[in-house]
Amino acid sequence: MPDKLHHTKGIVLRTVKYGETSVVVTIFTELFGLQAYLVNGVRASTKKGAGKANLFQPTAILDMVVYHSELKQLQRIREFKWAHIYQHILSDVRKNAVALFMVELLTKSLKQPEANPDLFHFAEDAFLHLDESDNGVTANFPLFFALHLAVFFGFRIYDRYSEQNQFLDLQEGNFSSHKPAHPHFLEDKYSAVTSQLLKVMQPEELADIKLNHDFRRNLLHAYETYYAFHIQDFGRLKTLPVLREIVG
After folding, report:
1. Which of 44, 75, 88, 241 would give a disulfide with 92, using CB separation of 3.0 to 4.6 Å?
2. How many CA atoms lie within 13 A of 131 on its CB side?
3. Nearest to 247 by CA among 103, 115, 101, 128
4. Contact yes or no for 13/102 (Cβ under 8 A)
């Protein structure tokens, strides 16, 4: 029985060369969640293959017709094209660094090949907002994305910050009135800004949160620690050192 054809959108997370002319692409799809696809011939220098590999850059959002079988670990794509053509993400150094951070965070958080359309739409929307954002929004975007992505994996931080509850315990993921017995917590302005970021519903609002370079770097490091406590084998984010340098 042949595999059924399905129409789905997908966000490219990772591409690995395979053989002389092919690639294996890890894509977060709207219909099937995380999937791996073998795509033949896209690295060929023939007229048919020329430029096709560009479509499989990480961050690309594709419109695809795919073969799908629950029994296979490697699927195939019948048709593919851009679902959105970015104006800035692939060419702007700062936006590209933020987008690759978002891709890595998604990749490390997604463990199972199960459909999660709400998460897909959140991620797709985030990439489109980032593409259109001004410098003030772009600089704060990684912080916003990291905090709001956690909601979909079941370890959201509930915004219970107040002058009394000003310690954010990164192990427990909550605000409390007592300093934790371990060193993994935020306090003072770091807690207050995290509370502000949690209240942001539309990325445009990020422009109103004014932070300096070092403050952002420290918060990014704290959020990485938070993820490491809540996702097994999370490790370290390879994109973070680049991001810390670029997002001033």
Report:
1. 88
2. 17
3. 101
4. no
The residue type found at 110 is L
**Alpha-carbon torsion (83, 84, 90, 95), positive or negative:** negative
Half-sphere exposure in the Cβ direction for 37 (13 Å, CA): 30
Q: What tokens does 67 get?
A: 């073969």
Residue pLDDT tens, the chain, 248 long: 567 899 999 999 999 999 888 999 999 999 999 999 999 888 776 665 556 888 999 999 999 999 998 888 899 999 999 999 999 999 999 999 999 999 999 999 998 888 999 999 999 999 999 999 999 999 999 999 999 999 999 999 999 999 999 999 999 999 999 999 999 999 999 999 999 999 999 999 999 999 999 999 999 999 999 999 999 999 999 999 999 887 75
| Cα gap 115→34, rounded to integer Å | 8
> Terminal CA-to-CA distance of the chain, rounded, Å?
55
State the Cα–Cα distance between residues 211 and 192, nearest whole angstrom: 12
* All domains in the chain, ordered by first residue: 4-82 (2.40.50.140), 93-246 (1.20.1440.120)
**Residue 49 has which token pair?**
């293959």
Count Cβ atoms within 10 A of the Cβ of residue 73 and give its class: 0-12 exposed, 13-18 middle, 19 or more buried.
exposed
Q: What is the C-alpha separation between 55 and 67, in angstroms, rounded?
A: 18
Nearest to 74 by CA among 113, 126, 45: 113
CA distance 244 to 82: 30
Contact 12, 86 (CB under 8 A): no
